[in-house]
Write a structure and sequence with these properties.
The chain is an alpha/beta fold. It folds into two domains: 295 residues, 3-Layer(aba) Sandwich (Rossmann fold), CATH 3.40.50.720; 108 residues, Dihydrodipicolinate Reductase, domain 2. It is built from 16 helices and ten strands. The strands form two sheets. The chain has a six-stranded parallel β-sheet, sandwiched between helices. Helix 1 packs across helix 4, helix 1 packs across helix 15 and helix 9 runs parallel beside helix 10. The longest helix is centred in the C-terminal third of the chain and has 21 residues. It is globular.
C-alpha cells in the first residue's frame, strides 16, 4: 500500500476546550504531569497502546505514537473558555477531582491557563449561573468574538495548528430546525439571534471558519447538523462527535458485544447513575437529561441489531437514570442490572457496580481526540472522522450506514485507519497486542 502524504507535526499545537471544568482541567493537569515528571499518561491509546503491523511472526509492534506522526505532549499549548472558573488551577481545585499533592507541582502552569470569557446562555444549562461571559448579545457578534479569540490565541502562543474539543456541559434537548439546514441559513440565524442556535453550535461554527478541527465531547446537537457537515466539507476541516464514552456506556460497549458473540439473549438492562459534579447538577434538569438519555439509549440497539436477531434482542427493556447526588462529587457510580437468557430460555442476571471517576476516564479521551484530529487535518481529511467512534457514546456516521458501536470493531477501525494512512496492510482478525 502507498502511504498517505501527511504534513509533519512541526511546531506547537494549541488545544482549545470550550469548558474549563472537571474534564478539561484534569486533562491539562495530566499532560503537564506526564511531560514534567514522566508519569505515564494512563488511559491514552495514542500514548500507551501498541499497533501490530503485518503478521504476528514479523514481530512489528510499535507504539502508536512512534508509528503515526502525531504531535508530542511537549508540543501542546492549552487554552479554553469557561463561564465560571478563571483559570485551570481554580477549576481543578473547585471540581475536586485531583488531590492538592498532585496539583501543587504544576500549580503555576495550571494558573497560567486563563479562561477566556465564554459564550453562555442559561436557557441551555438552567442549573448553571455563568458570570464570566461575553458582553456581546447578538449571536453573530458572539461568533465573531470567538473567532477573534482563536486568532489571538494562535498568535500569542505561536501555534502552528489548533484543535478544539468540547468539554462543556450538556445542553438542553433539541431537534434540528430550518436554521440548521445550510450554512447560509445558520449564518442568517446567527444575525437574527435565532433561539434554536445553542452556544455549542456557535463554537463549532467559529472553529470551522477558523480552520480548526472540532470534536464534540457532549451529546449536544452541534457537529451532527447539516450546516456543520457542509461547512466542514467546504472548509476542508475534520469534525467528530459525539459524547465522551467513559463510565457506564463504556461497560455496555464491552459487555454487549460479548453477549451477542455468544448468542445470549437480553430481556432488559436497567442503568442508574449517581454523580455530584457540575455535570450531575446540569443533568438534574429534565431538559438536559433528555439530551444525555438519547445518547446513552442508542448504544445497545446498534450493537445488538434486534432487526437481525429478533428472538434474542427484539424486546429489550432499556432504562437509563441519572441522579444528582452532591456528596459523590466527580466519583460517579453506575449500577447496572442486566437480565439475560440462554439455553432453553433459562434466565440469568448480571450485576455491575462501577465506582468510576468520570474525569479520570474522560481526560485521556480529550488528549487522544485532540492528537488524532490534528493528524486527520494534516492528512487532508474533512467531514466526519468515523474512525474515532472508539471514544464516543453516540458516534456520527460518515455515510448512510449507522456508525459502529461495538468497542472492539471500533478499535480495529481506528488502528486500520492509521495503518492505511501509513501504507501498511489492514489487520482483520485480531487486535490483541
Amino acid at each position: 500500500m502507498t502511504a498517505r502524504d501527511i504534513a509533519p507535526a512541526t511546531g506547537k499545537l494549541g488545544v482549545l476546550t470550550p469548558g474549563l471544568g472537571a474534564v478539561a482541567s484534569t486533562f491539562i493537569a495530566g499532560v503537564l504531569t506526564a511531560r514534567q515528571q514522566g508519569v505515564a499518561p494512563l488511559g491514552s491509546v495514542s500514548q500507551m497502546a501498541h499497533i501490530r503491523l503485518g503478521t504476528r511472526e514479523e514481530g512489528r509492534n510499535p507504539l502508536i505514537k512512534d508509528f503515526a506522526p502525531i504531535a508530542t505532549l511537549d508540543d501542546i499549548v492549552f487554552g479554553g473558555w469557561d463561564p465560571i472558573s478563571a483559570n485551570a488551577l481554580e477549576a481543578a481545585r473547585t471540581c475536586g477531582v485531583l488531590e492538592e499533592k498532585d496539583l501543587a507541582p504544576i500549580s503555576s502552569e495550571l494558573e497560567g491557563v486563563v479562561a477566556m470569557d465564554a459564550v453562555f446562555d442559561q436557557r441551555w444549562v438552567s442549573r448553571l449561573d455563568g458570570t464570566r461571559v461575553k458582553s456581546e448579545t447578538n449571536k453573530w457578534d458572539q461568533a465573531m468574538a470567538l473567532m477573534a479569540d482563536i486568532e489571538n490565541f494562535r498568535t500569542e502562543n505561536d501555534c502552528d495548528r489548533l484543535v478544539m474539543v468540547w468539554c462543556g456541559s450538556t445542553e438542553a434537548f433539541q431537534e434540528p430546525s430550518a436554521v440548521h439546514d445550510t450554512v447560509a441559513a445558520f449564518e442568517q440565524g446567527l444575525k437574527d439571534n435565532d433561539d434554536n442556535i445553542s452556544p455549542s453550535q456557535i463554537y463549532v461554527y467559529a472553529a470551522l471558519q477558523s480552520d480548526v478541527p472540532f470534536a464534540n465531547g457532549a451529546p449536544n446537537l452541534s457537529t451532527d447538523l447539516p450546516c456543520m457537515l457542509e461547512l466542514s466539507k467546504t472548509r476542508g476541516v475534520p469534525i467528530a462527535g459525539k459524547d465522551f464514552k467513559t463510565g457506564q456506556t463504556l461497560m455496555k460497549t464491552l459487555l454487549a458485544p460479548g453477549l451477542k458473540a455468544r448468542m445470549l439473549g437480553l430481556e432488559g438492562w436497567y442503568s442508574t447513575n449517581i454523580l455530584g459534579n457540575r455535570d450531575g447538577e446540569v443533568l438534574d434538569a429534565p431538559e438536559n437529561f433528555k439530551t444525555k438519555e438519547e445518547s446513552k439509549l442508542g448504544v445497545l440497539h446498534k450493537i445488538l441489531e434486534p432487526e437481525v436477531y429478533p428472538e434474542l434482542y427484539g424486546d429489550v427493556d432499556h432504562v437509563v437514570r441519572i441522579n444528582y447526588y452532591p456528596p459523590r462529587g466527580d466519583n460517579k457510580e453506575g449500577w447496572d442490572a442486566v437480565d439475560i437468557f440462554g439455553w432453553m430460555g433459562y434466565k440469568m442476571q448480571i450485576k455491575i457496580d462501577f465506582l468510576c471517576r468520570d474525569s479520570i476516564l474522560a481526560a485521556p479521551i480529550v488528549l487522544d481526540l485532540a492528537l488524532f484530529m490534528d493528524l486527520a487535518m494534516r492528512a487532508g481529511e474533512s467531514g466526519v472522522q468515523e474512525w474515532l467512534s472508539f471514544y464516543l457514546k453516540a458516534p456520527q456516521s460518515a455515510g448512510d450506514a449507522p456508525a459502529e458501536q461495538d468497542l472492539f470493531i471500533q478499535q480495529t477501525k481506528l488502528k486500520n485507519t492509521l495503518r492505511e494512512w501509513m501504507g501498511e496492510q489492514p489487520v482483520t482478525h485480531s487486535e490483541v497486542g
